[in-house]
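Appendix B. Raw example, untouched.
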Amino acid sequence: MPVNQDVIITCALTGAGDTVGRSPHVPVTPAQIAASAVEAAGAGAAVVHIHVREPETGAPSRDPRLYREVVERIRETGTDVVINLTAGMGGDLVIDPEAPLRQLPGTDLVGGLDRLPHVEDLLPDICTLDCGSLNFGDGSNLYVSTPDMLRTGAKRIQELGVRPELEIFDTGQLWFAKQLLAEGLLDDPTVFQLCMGIPWGAPADPGVLQAMVTMLPQGAQWASFALGRMQMPWVAQSILLGGHVRVGLEDNLYLGKGVKATNGQLVECAVRITESLGSRVATPDEAREKLGLRPRA
């Protein structure tokens, strides 16, 4: 497979994980998240992937008002960057293993349409669509995204004219994403994010990544990432297989052993790896063209 010569770098700014207490650099408030987006764009990210958090606690949120504030703050700076909003929140189910019909604290489970109000409000360039259910880590935590939910969500995203980034955590999810395409619920070019190393989905194994890349539909644009210390090796791995890349504090907090990173620093590392492989970093306008997005307003 050919080395990707023009690489789109996405920076996943904050995520929804329990990382706020583990690094002072994880942005929490809308102002912090927007400032981190501007920093990442200045370092070379063409795309910023945005979650929001409750400003007082750092807990994950899907409040449309917080998304609106982040996006407006970014746009007010005049920063040229592609906006990618998560639409994966609302799929968390924590069950009692002794009484599985009983939901435990941490559950936030809603239907496909109820995961999209902020997308309907803001009409971002991209929103994510998590393409299947998953045992999410150890214990009794599940991420729930059923075929019916996915068909409903994909249809609504298509109606809004927003490009879905298809989040793929295992091979069966990629199989189903191709089924959505066959049913006419996705438009070309399809955009895939291959998410590696999340327990218990696809492992961060180069052979598994190559197998997933082989499964992609003709003409798809794709990126991949891996967690923690595998983040930067995966930048190289993705480029060598012809893909784009994702870095950021959602997936990794460190520049090196014991050295906490900022989003901008992680993007700078991805830029260096990209250029050391003889490739170049795509601009936001080039990313829009590759991903089939609307021109910048």
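End of appendix B.
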